[in-house]
Amino acid sequence: MKIREEAHRMKLISPKLAASTNEERNKALKAVAGELVQHKEEIFEANHKDLDNAKENGISDAVYKRLKFDEGKLNTVIEGIHQLVGLADPVGKVLLSRELDEGLVLKRISCPIGVIGVIFEARPDALVQISTLCIKSGNCAILKGGKETANTNKVLFNIIYKAVVDAGLPEGCLLQAEQHNEIDELLQCEKDVDLLIPRGSNAFVQYIMNNTKIPVMGHADGVCHVYVDKDADIEKAIPIIIDAKTQYTAACNAAETLLVHRDIADKFLPKAAAALANAGVKLRGTKEVTDIINAEEMTEEEFHKEYLELVMSVKLVSDVNEAVEHINKFGSHHTDSIITEDTKTADYFMQMVDSAGVYHNCSTRFADGFRYGFGAEVGISTSKIHARGPVGLEGLMTYKYKLYGTGQIVDDYATGKKNFHFKEL
User: Fold this and answer.
1) How many C-beta atoms surround the C-beta of residue 96 within 10 A?
2) What is the CATH number of domain 2-217+391-401?
3) Within 188-315, where are the H helices?
4) Rounded to two decimals, what is the model's pTM?
5) pLDDT digit string (tens) for 1-29?
6) Residue 400: closest CA among 23, 96, 24, 98
7) Which CATH superfamily is 224-366 part of?
């Protein structure tokens, strides 16, 4: 019952954190950044234990890369924290101010969602990003990381929690769930947890969505595309494709499918295939593709697959319309990119592709809260309700209506004694 009791206690604490000032929350974030640097050797030592355990369990290279928390990842999360400190306070923004009648003023004010449960696999840097985003946005957070990085997560959480409480934020504003069975307990906390954000495999996210009444924000998979149009600059296209596929293969924004205009297939595909092969990428394609390059033949329905490894699907299309239709049918509405020098074609693609991120002449790997200047992200949402794409501070906010009166009653308006005049302030 620990999680349920703690979640209920956290629900009662959440208004206190929401009422904290931006200066107080920034002070806590600066303290977190300082303590992470101060205790980095302790963090790295814990991470080495997790990495050694992962090797013994024969974990894949893609997952191993996600488990690793080294100097580079530490520097990235520290930079993300400093970005957060520099961002405007998302709490208390006046989103609407309207005079309904003389002396009766309505305001819509941004406020934190409240208590957010974040369940994530593999990446310990996610714990830092998520907890600091929640602190900056005034949200309490229950954090459950994967068992693969249990040692790293525990050390990171203890450092972060002590830093924010010592800086003056309410005790109990952050909680770490460590046992696997606590996930199911967390899923039953619909009265106290306002939002769940799962980060992990398709099966993992689907399990969360299917076993809770709490609203869930996130994405189940990342089947991202790069479409090379007939008017593409080939010298520009190849580095973009290589980056989109190989820069971080295990990421949800890595490209899984390459679509190529038939008019340039004979010229472009051999060059692209050679570059991808040189980068260690294995290609799979339709019969039409295998007639041009060396690739494993695949069926149409396999284009739904998210590889998360050095494998890429390839298909030829007749025009941008067919590319859009393919992406909207087989994609996951995450991030898709077009390579073309024709701005009209690019505009059509970006208008018609139904994804959270649509790009022109750049890598899908830019789909990231840190790279968008959000400081970090709690995840990427492919939903169209509330938040979409990398979820930073704005995605962790909701709003409330505040009505300021001077003795008004509804009956006066119902009987015609008074009338609304609705004036924007």
Assistant:
1) 12
2) 3.40.605.10
3) 202-210, 234-246, 262-278, 287-290
4) 0.82
5) 589 999 999 999 999 999 999 999 999 99
6) 96
7) Aldehyde Dehydrogenase; Chain A, domain 2 (3.40.309.10)
